[in-house]
Amino acid sequence: MAVEGKRGGERVKISRSDVEHVALLARLELTEPEIEMFTEQLNSILEYAAVLEQLNTDGVSPTAHVLPLHNVLREDVVRPSLEQEKALMNAPDAENGFFRVPRIV
Predict the structure, then answer these.
(1) For the domain bounded by 1-56, which CATH number is listed?
(2) Among positive and negative, which fits the CA dihedral 72, 76, 79, 83?
(3) Inter-axis angle of helices 32-53 and 16-25, to 10 degrees?
(4) Are 50 and 11 in contact (CB under 8 A)?
(5) pTM of whole model > 0.70?
(6) CB 5 within 8 A of CB 11
(7) What is the domain partition of the chain in residue ranges?
(8) What GO molecular-function term can you cite, just one (predicted)?
(9) What is the signed CA dihedral for 69, 70, 72, 74, rounded to 10 degrees?
(10) What tens digit of pLDDT does each residue of 23-66 get?
């Protein structure tokens, strides 16, 4: 099924050597049947993408998600924070108004 992309470019086809190269980069050991299977599957995916590219999307606004999501977080409001003395009150160790922690380097 040869389908030309909407942009008029040539249809991309995954070769056996492409699958072998990606498997080498990913350090995967593939058997001969697996190489054949992945070559066919990847080409099927690209064929379907080419079909989708033919869809008329004029008038369809771009979205980042298919569901109408809205920000459900509360507004940022500046409020008084904990006083320094209270924050350090339960600290195991403090020095010059800061938390003192064990050296790790």
Answers:
(1) 1.10.20.60
(2) positive
(3) 110
(4) yes
(5) no
(6) yes
(7) 1-56
(8) ATP binding
(9) 160
(10) 999 999 999 999 999 999 999 999 999 898 888 989 888 877 77
- Asked if 30 and 37 touch (Cβ cutoff 8 Å), the reply is no
pLDDT digits (tens, 9 = 90+) for 47-59: 999 898 888 989 8
State the number of CA atoms in the 13 A half-sphere of 23 facing the CB.
16
Give which of 10, 97, 20 is closest to 53, Cα–Cα. Answer: 10
Round to whole Å and give the CA distance between 50 and 88.
61
In the numeric block, which tokens belong to residue 93? 């160790």
As a whole number of angstroms, the distance between CA 44 and CA 90 comes to 62
Residue 2 above 70 pLDDT?
Answer: no
In the chain, at which residue ranges do the beta strands (DSSP E only) sit? 94-95, 98-99
